[in-house]
Write a structure and sequence with these properties.
The complex is a heterodimer of chains A (85) and B (755). Chain A is built from three helices and seven strands; from the N terminus they run E-H-E-H-H-E-E-E-E-E. The termini of chain A are far apart. In chain B, a hairpin with a 5-residue loop joins strand 16 and strand 17. In chain B, the strands form seven sheets. Chain B has a seven-stranded mixed beta sheet with strand order 4-8-2-15-12-13-14. In chain B, strands 1-29-28-27-19 form a five-stranded mixed beta sheet, with helices on both faces. A five-stranded mixed beta sheet of chain B has the order 10-18-17-16-11. Chain B is α+β, with helices and mostly antiparallel strands and 755 residues long. Chain B is globular and about 85 Å long. Classes of the chains: A alpha+beta (85), B alpha+beta (755). Chains A and B meet through strand 6 and strand 7 of A and strand 5, strand 10 and helix 10 of B.
Chain lengths: 85, 755
């Protein structure tokens, strides 16, 4: 199962800083999270896509694609978007 | 030029690591390179802006009639001439943009939100007439209270810039609007337990002023809106495709109707990604039926483009008496300018990024106020937080009586270190950078004399991957024409061409790189985020492999053997007891088949994790507070230095910008929210008279995510100078300054007040 690091500001929904979730990609991970912790998807997504303020770190890969594959023990982080100069 | 190398890569390269003359060098030094302002199209007209004299004001009315009655005036425009903006957020590769906000920044809608905010524009047959006509556009304002300091803007009774701005947070959204655009929080471990385990805790507050990127070339564009509905724009930009994307959204037209031609660019540093004058030039061109050029004056560039935020920061770090960090806490407030979307995110992610900190918490706030919308500036957000965190780290080292480099080595981030925001580092080179400085002649030298001090500091920046595209065509004479979408700011034509050359086994001089417009090459993200040599170089490597595959097929055809029987080594193709060099094969290939064209398109989604460590000696004049840089050494992990001269140039350029940020640069705002130093006469940037030659140490810890080990090098060098200089001043005077810039009046007051 993937290890999802829950942002501190929504840990009150999960009661934990890390949650193990099954799913083959990030979209399924978020669906599973929503089933277990209703309301969490609305904090992370906007119209079915990742919130524009967020990006994902999936085992060091920085992406905004919810279709990103996850495997057992994959780490999923929700991070702010970054701009460079 | 003094440069040292510390390298871990074992591969022998033919091209990489050499210093060929840059392909655009001759054009640049002879003045033949074409910048946007060099364009003079037939029948071209000139635009000028009308800008708000108030930092915050309701726009009651705009009367353009007097201007339009002037002979030679062709048209005027206001925000009413732009389509109703979409409240749509779009990904520009390096951060997102809300088009409603962007449209409102290009031309004010209803309210002017900062001094210099564009309110209207006019186009005339010459630029002087346009300026005169702009002065005759009558705008009636109703001034409103303004705020330009981030903590004031966060107060409950602060004047609101946007009545509908609800704080974006993953937490429960507040019920009332405010100027706080976003609140971010990170946690790692348990900070209460971490601070309880500390023997020494240092907590300090820091402020930084708004500073500008200070690129030499102002913003300038030429727009030509043709009768067939196609729009062509020549402009100085870091990303032609991103300009096309913004233009299509703001003008609500298909991207296929828009061509962006990137001219040579006189600096960007993050400030030439957003559009400003381009949409206005386009609308004026459509209205008057002529090509329209708009050049922003220097005061307009200062007042109405995108500087980096001012900030307030509180940082607290604890350590054991043995020198191990136990906990860190940061509270950060950055101003975003007049519209949401600042750099608080990377600020929060970078504040403790140099250290293996077991327990940490970070709160960050992005705050709108009556200043121009901030934009990226070289490692955006990281310089601010490094000033705070590295100053506290240095003070801990002083209190614990531990050598500042040894203290950092005890706690440095390494492969496997988990950052406060969560991700774990792959192989990184901070320890190697620290060791390089520790082993430098500079560090081993003795600094003596009164009022002198030595400081050291670390810096981190992520570096980006993102999308890049190239095509490469083999010419019959054995050269290769390389077409790329990355605008060339720091010599990237050559650093990309060198990677193509290395892969093909030809010389860098045999590659002819061309930066193409948006109709002539595949999508390429901005030249920014230290990504171009890494990602577009990766695309060039792919294109070279594509060419190599086709050349092997062609050789097999010529030698009447299987492709599998052809091998290539260092540009020489062998098979069937014959051999041909690349250029020989290129000539034969041209006569027996179709053109050989390689393509490369990549989207690497990784950070290349740059670290830097800087060392500085200063002398303080106690009578004036002036700080003189006596000696400066910068080490940086480049992964692999493709062209060492350009790596040195990036290290030196970033260091000097960081020195300016540390010692002199700031926007002076008066009580009315007006910038009082919007010129290079009064906005004090360092020149070659202010700094010694920056000595560079290129550390090479190859990046595992690139075939040649490249890491981005363009940004991190701006990060360490402010804290390194602050620590040097502390050693020279005993005074720890916590406000940037550490300008002569500020230091003089501190010395004379005994602070």
């Amino acid at each position: 199962m993937a290890i999802v690091y829950i942002p501190p500001q929504i840990q009150k929904l999960t009661g934990a800083a890390q949650v193990e979730v099954s799913g083959s990609n990030v979209r399924e991970i978020i669906e599973q999270l929503e089933q277990r912790f209703p309301g969490i998807a609305a904090r992370l997504c906007d119209n079915g896509q990742l919130s524009p303020a967020l990006q994902l770190s999936v085992d060091q890969v920085m992406t905004r694609m919810l279709s990103t594959k996850v495997e057992s023990a994959t780490e999923v982080h929700f991070l702010p978007v970054i701009g460079g100069g | 030029m003094s440069t040292e190398f510390m390298t871990e890569h074992s591969t022998e390269y033919k091209v990489i690591g050499t210093r060929p003359v840059r392909h655009d060098g001759s054009d640049k030094v002879t003045g033949k390179a074409v910048y946007t302002d060099d364009l003079h199209l037939p029948n071209m007209a000139f635009g000028a802006f009308v800008r708000s004299p108030h930092a915050h004001a309701k726009i009651v009315s705009i009367d353009t009639s007097q201007a339009e009655d002037m002979p030679g005036v062709l048209a005027t425009c206001t925000s009413a001439d732009l389509p109703d903006p979409w409240d749509k957020v779009d990904d520009l590769g390096e951060g997102c943009v809300n088009y409603a906000h962007l449209s409102g920044n290009v031309l004010a809608r209803g309210k002017a939100l900062y001094k210099g905010h564009a309110v209207a524009a006019v186009v005339a047959t010459d630029s002087h007439l346009a300026e005169e006509a702009a002065s005759r556009i009558r705008v009636e304002y109703e001034p409103l209270p303004a705020t330009t300091w981030v903590l004031d803007a966060m107060k409950e009774d602060a004047p609101l810039l946007h009545d509908d701005l609800i704080t974006h947070t993953l937490d429960d959204a507040p019920a009332k609007p405010s100027n706080i655009e976003s609140h971010i929080r990170f946690e790692k471990g348990n900070i209460e337990e971490g601070f309880a385990a500390a023997d020494v805790i240092v907590e300090r507050e820091f402020k930084t002023a708004t500073v500008h990127q200070g690129y030499i070339e102002p913003h300038v564009s030429v727009a030509s809106w043709n009768e067939d509905g196609r729009l062509k724009i020549w402009t100085a930009t870091q990303g032609s495709f991103v300009v096309r994307q913004q233009m299509a959204a703001l003008l609500k037209m298909p991207i296929s109707q828009i061509t962006i031609v990137p001219c040579e660019i006189g600096g960007g540093f993050g400030g030439k990604i957003s559009v400003y004058e381009q949409p206005v030039a386009a609308v004026l061109s459509r209205k008057c039926g002529r090509p329209v050029k708009i050049i922003m004056r220097r005061d307009e560039v200062f007042e109405a483009t995108g500087p980096t935020p001012g900030s307030f920061m509180r940082v607290k770090i604890g350590a054991t008496k043995e020198g191990k960090l136990t906990a860190g806490e940061a509270w950060l407030a950055f101003d975003a300018g007049a519209f949401p979307g600042g750099v608080i995110g990377p600020g929060c992610m970078c504040v403790f990024s140099c250290y293996d900190l077991p327990n940490a918490a970070v709160d960050g706030f992005d705050v709108v106020l009556n200043k121009p919308k901030t934009q990226a500036y070289r490692a955006p957000g990281s310089t601010h937080v490094a000033f705070a965190a590295e100053s506290v780290i240095d003070e801990l080292a002083v209190q614990l009586d531990i050598d500042p480099i040894e203290f950092r080595l005890k706690n440095a981030a390494v492969e496997g270190t988990r950052r406060v925001d969560g991700p774990v580092y792959p192989r990184v080179g901070l320890v190697e950078c620290l060791e390089a400085v520790k082993n430098s002649e500079h560090w081993k030298s003795t600094l003596s004399g009164p009022n002198r001090g030595r400081g050291v500091a670390c810096g981190f920046w992520f570096n980006a991957g993102l999308k890049s595209s190239v095509t490469a065509s083999v010419n019959p004479d054995g050269t290769v024409t390389l077409v790329e979408g990355s605008t060339d700011i720091g010599g990237t034509r050559t650093s990309i061409a060198m990677q193509l050359a290395e892969t093909l086994g030809i010389s860098a001089e045999d590659v002819i790189p061309q930066v193409a417009d948006t109709d002539s090459v595949g999508f390429t993200d901005v030249t920014g985020g230290s990504r171009t040599t890494f990602a577009t170089g990766l695309a060039a490597h792919e294109a070279a492999l594509d060419i190599q595959r086709q050349m092997m097929e062609r050789a097999a055809q010529i030698w009447e053997c299987d492709t599998g029987d052809v091998e290539v080594r260092e540009g020489v193709y062998r098979g069937n007891d014959e051999s041909l060099t690349f250029s020989e094969l290129a000539l034969k290939a041209d006569s027996v088949g179709e053109a050989i064209i390689g393509r490369g398109a990549v989207d690497p989604q990784v950070s290349t994790n740059a670290f830097a460590v800087h060392l500085v000696d200063v002398e303080v004049d106690p009578e004036t507070g002036k700080v003189t840089i006596l000696r400066y050494t910068a080490s940086q992990d480049a992964g692999t230095a493709i062209h060492p001269s350009y790596v040195e140039g990036q290290i030196q350029g970033g260091s000097v910008q960081g020195i300016g940020w540390a010692l002199n640069e700031e926007y002076f705002y008066d009580d009315d929210g007006h910038v009082r130093n919007a010129s290079f006469l009064d906005y004090r940037m360092p020149t070659c008279y202010d700094v010694p030659m920056i000595e560079t140490i290129i550390v090479e810890v190859p990046n595992p995510d690139h075939p040649y080990g490249v890491r981005g090098v363009g940004e991190v060098s701006i990060v360490p100078p402010p804290p390194a200089i602050a620590s040097a001043i502390q050693r020279a005077t005993g005074i720890r300054l916590t406000d940037l810039p550490m300008s002569p009046p500020k230091l003089w007051r501190a010395i004379n007040n005994g602070e």
